[in-house]
Amino acid sequence: MFRVVRRLPSNDVEWTDFDRVTPTARLTAQRSGRIEAGDVADEIGRVEAETRPRWVWDDTPRWYPRLLGAGVRVSRIVDLRLVHALLRSSSATEGSALHGAARGPWDTAQAATDDASALFELVPESLPDPVAEFLAQREAIEASPARAGLELLVAAESTGALVAVEMRRRGIPWSPIVHDAVLTELLGPRPGPGERPAHMRDDLDEIRVALGDPDVNPDSPVELRKALNRAGIPVTSTSKWQLSEHEHPVIEPLLRYKKRQRLLVANGWSWLDAWIRDGRFRPDYVPGGVVTGRWATSGGGALQLPKAVRRAVVADPGWKLVVADAAQLEPRILSGLARDAAMAKAGEGDLYEGIVRSGAVADRPQAKVAMLGAMYGATRGESGRLVPRLARAFPRAMAYVDAAAAVGEGGGVVSTLLGRSSPRPGAGVAPDVMPPEMPRADGDGASRAWGRFTRNFVVQGTAAEWALCWMAALRRRLYDTWGERGEAAPHLVLFLHDELVVHSPADVADLVAEQVRLAAVEAGELLFGPSPVRFPLTVAVVDDYGQAK
DNA sequence: CACTGATGCGCG
DNA sequence: AAAGCGCGCATCAGTG
Questions:
Q1: Strand A280-281 and strand A537-542: pairing?
Q2: How far is the CA of A191 from the C1' of B1 (A)?
Q3: Which residue places its CA closest to the C1' of nucleotide B11?
Q4: How far is residue A400 from each of residues A375, A391, A416, A444, measured CA to CA in Å?
Q5: Which 3 state secondary structure label does DSSP give A214?
Q6: A14 and A115: one domain?
Q7: Number of domain units in chain A
Q8: Is it the case that residue A315 has pLDDT exceeding 60?
């Protein structure tokens, strides 16, 4: 049963139930009712406990923080805003009213608020009708030839929205003491305002001596490049990889300085002051924030935590972190997409070792660089040279990504396994690439760049779908097994594309690790059914995130 | 002063 | 200055 909820201007909530009588029957409204503003959380909690409907609402950040604050967790929802975005652009909904609909209120990002106290006090703007939108979405899904995939995708995307709010509510356990110790070790003690940390002052002295320039400011790329050129180092940019190609006394201290400057600026003491409260880091996750379906974050850079500061993610006393990483996820996804039996066989154990054993390449590093080259569309360098050898060993996999690239080069749309479609070139939300021009002979025009994007889209996007299913399956398993423990139950605290971290009471951490593995098996079956492709994990039960891997 | 784009680097 | 995808963020550099 679906229960569509809608907040009225009075802040009362109106609900309407839709039952699915048979898989093919049109949904019809069965019952409806109204909840007074003050009873919303209690009533939703009561209905959830009794019938566990699939709640349908406009935008999860507008509903769920307040519910969680009142102790109400829900199992299943449809997030109309996220699903609208999926269905509107999906090739699998062609012919439906939703497909290619004009941009409207469902396409404009809602004012995301996590301020639970303000949520229901907001004067609702003239919100679009959630019942009409829900019916349009159901119609698009049920008429689609790719219905099964869309149903799964819609459920996974929506559950991701729940997890994002839940993770932000719990926060990542963070030790400011350890973080400060890391910074002090790498940079020196916390400096006064406007001062450089001690180790960076030492680096700077060395840089200035080596360049014979007592005033050079390495924070200014333009100034630095000129100073380097004056010292006889012919760099055209100040990027670290170009610097490291030259022999000169300035290079080593300069690279050290840049590394430290990066840490200071991105995750230094001011980051600590801004983002850590009461021993928790609460980033603002943005499900579906990336065109491929990956999550993004806004503020805090939670998906780019440097390895060096991960030691500061410390489990509470009596708790552990269960850190799980899907090994070589994207190439495994490709072997599933392409139904490449030879590649699936190579992936029975470590995929890259398997590729070596197949005879395609000489060693594991070569296997890795060749595989990445195949998925990203490398044409030059070592990677580009190795790709053809991979293509001989795994022709089906290679044909799959080559076909996706060809579609993109021709200005077409590609889709993931479950039905998320790539943007049309030049659609605006697209990556920073110009739309393809007429195919040209110069070998690397904009159309080639777009082809590399669509080549990668099918793999990255399907990997994101696997990861959402993995996370959703784990969420359900954690709740089913330990849900009655309430706040003391193991809970997800981080989701990093192909990696999950669960904060767990120590006594059940090993059982959590087992559930993480079972959830990965479940995700593989959801996407690929009976298939030889495997999705092995590396799982570590640790006290701090720095100990994992 | 505010704004925008480029640069460089952290992550997957 | 990447070769080869997807991001966020701080800072600099240039413009209005």
A1: unpaired
A2: 29
A3: A304
A4: 10, 11, 12, 21
A5: coil
A6: yes
A7: 4
A8: yes
Question: Residue A237: pLDDT above 70?
Answer: yes
What is the reported pTM?
0.95
Record the tokens describing residue A57, joined without a space.
């609402």
In a domain, residue A163? The reply is yes
Residue with structure tokens 């139904």? A339
Distance B12 C1' – A202 CA (angstroms): 33
CATH number, position A144: 3.30.420
Q: For residue range A131-157, list pLDDT tens digits in order.
A: 999 999 999 999 999 999 999 999 999
Residues near A533 by Cβ (< 8 Å), separated by ≥ 6?
A332, A335, A336, A344, A347, A524
Per the CB < 8 A criterion, the answer to whether A256 and A244 are in contact is no
User: Which nucleotide does the CA of A452 lie closest to, via C1'?
Assistant: C5
The residue with tokens 């219905």 is A147
Domain boundary among A140, A170, A200: A170
pLDDT over 80 (residue A428): no
Question: What is the CATH classification number for the domain harbouring A183?
Answer: 1.20.1060
**Sheet with strand A491-495: strands edge to edge:** A491-495, A499-505, A319-326, A537-542
Contact criterion met (CB below 8 Å) for A2 and A78: yes
